[in-house]
Amino acid sequence: VIEIVKLPSEMQARAQRWRAEGQRIAFVPTMGYLHAGHVSLLEEGRRRADILVLSIFVNPTQFGPREDLDAYPRDEPGDLHKAESAGVDVAFCPLEPVELFPPTALTWVYVEGLQGVLCGRTRPDHFRGVCTVCAKLWNLIRPDLSVFGEKDFQQLAILRRMHADLHLSGEIVSVPTVREADGLAMSSRNANLSLSARSEALAIPGLLRSIESRFAQGERRVDVLLSGAVAALAPGRVDYVEIRDAHSLAALDTVRGPARCAVAAWYGGVRLIDNVVLDPG
Ligand code: PAF
Fold first, then answer.
1. What percentage of the chain has pLDDT greater than the value 90?
2. What atom of ligand 1 comes closest to residue 30's alpha carbon?
3. Residue 162 Cα, ligand 1 centroid: separation in angstroms?
């Protein structure tokens, strides 16, 4: 059965014991409201380790002052049930944000360059919050592997950079985006979409599929691939639709190596992100 740990000190002590026993630890950090995408991350972790740890923590430091922290969906009992079915051994659920961010804390982790583009343009402190909470969680648990979803492709690129730059131990594993039957990428925020906004939001996977197929037919020019993209996302309010290098996040004129087409757009007051791989092979 799943065990729930609330105190960071207890989480750290348990992880130390597992390591001393030679057990391999997989870690899946989340903000809860688990869906099939999270379950695919848990399954990947379960396959690759002896102990599977899930964290559920709605991290206030990655939300801006006018963002949806209060409206972020939460369902701890439902999450624990899904986690148990997915084979989670321990769920780390800090009781209050102050457990990880006490008022005395002054330290932030900031990855220069990568966090100012794409989502960072409209969410300037978002990735600082993500990196800092991940640094704390990684230090408490010191997992052999951590599993992240590719839907948050910029987050993944930034965390990989930070992980390498800080010589952190363990491995980062990524898992492809899981989609609803109609193509919408799974996201906890989908729960906040009205029926009409949800159907309008299908413009996102529709656009990404069409860019993917033009790319598969040989088109490599970024301006051509993106022509008409903003209009295709209507009535969504578009934060960005861009094609960038998959690792450095550099802007491109022509796709010559692994790239991603990434979108952030608002439907009915809900901000959604999605992306597809464009890899010339
Ligand atoms: O991807 C998420 O759910 C969050 O950004 C993460 C990695 C759990 C950090 O709070």
1. 100
2. 8
3. 15
